[in-house]
Amino acid sequence: MLSTETIDGVLIVRVEERRLDASKAPLFKEHVSAALGGDVNRLVLDLGQVEFIDSSGLGVIVSVLKRLGPSGSLAIASANSAVRRLFSLTRMDRVFILYDTPQSAIENLRA
Amino acid sequence: MSSSLSLKIDSDLAGVGPVARAVRALCSETLDELALDELELGVVEALNNVIKHGYAGQKGSLVQVRVGLKADKVVVEIIDQAPPMPPSALQPSDPWAGIDAAEPQDLPEGGMGLALIQMTMDEVAYSSRKGVNTLTLTKLLSRK
């Protein structure tokens, strides 16, 4: 469902699903929680393989942001047009910064 | 030009994605990409809502999806026989009110489905008669 990698203290979570919807949201939440561990507070969510997210999937992403706490930051990378539309409709594009590539997200979180 | 197609699925969240993709494919000659993205999202939220709330997440009931292609619009009807939604459910709502000032801890994680249906569609209507509920979602053709 996902793979992870740590670069310069930033956890990259690559979602390996084409659809992040209500049928997958509970399991996705479990997997991300397991990946977070104790001291992670900067995270890049790589959505390069994701074609579609519904409000349940978005809810999990919001829960991850909450879990990271006040000092944490969560950046979104490689969202397609459908996912970007979901973020703009729900105004979550004002909460999360959407980057075109994981690399640019990592650079910004590191800075 | 007018044609329609009807699909039936079990009340199982795992079946929502394939049906939504089928609806999208049916309308791909009629709507532009942005409208297709919105249509797919609205249909998914509507089906999730019927299954999660109408049928309380239980499999084994039928949900019908009827797609009508007209000259000037696409009409998707979601038909179920679950307990009906209260009339207030489809009142305009904004789960994201005050989001600009909100702390992350206050951001909504759920309860966004009905609002997204309203936001992605041009018209939303709901009727419940003799135990049959019909949610009618209309997407108008954008003038290019």
Automatic annotation (TrEMBL), chain A:
GO terms for molecular function: anti-sigma factor antagonist activity. InterPro entries: Anti-sigma_ant, STAS_dom, STAS_dom_sf. Belongs to the anti-sigma-factor antagonist family. Pfam families: STAS. This is Anti-sigma factor antagonist. Residues 20-109 form the STAS domain. Gene3D superfamilies: STAS domain.
UniProtKB/TrEMBL annotation, chain B:
Pfam families: HATPase_c_2 (PF13581). GO terms for molecular function: ATP binding; protein serine/threonine kinase activity. Keywords: ATP-binding, Kinase, Nucleotide-binding, Serine/threonine-protein kinase, Transferase. Residues 11-139 form the Histidine kinase/HSP90-like ATPase domain. Gene3D superfamilies: Histidine kinase-like ATPase, C-terminal domain. InterPro entries: Anti-sigma-factor_SerPK, HATPase_C_sf, HATPase_dom. PANTHER family: ANTI-SIGMA-F FACTOR RSBW, ANTI-SIGMA-F FACTOR RSBW-RELATED. This is ATP-binding protein. It comes from Devosia aurantiaca.
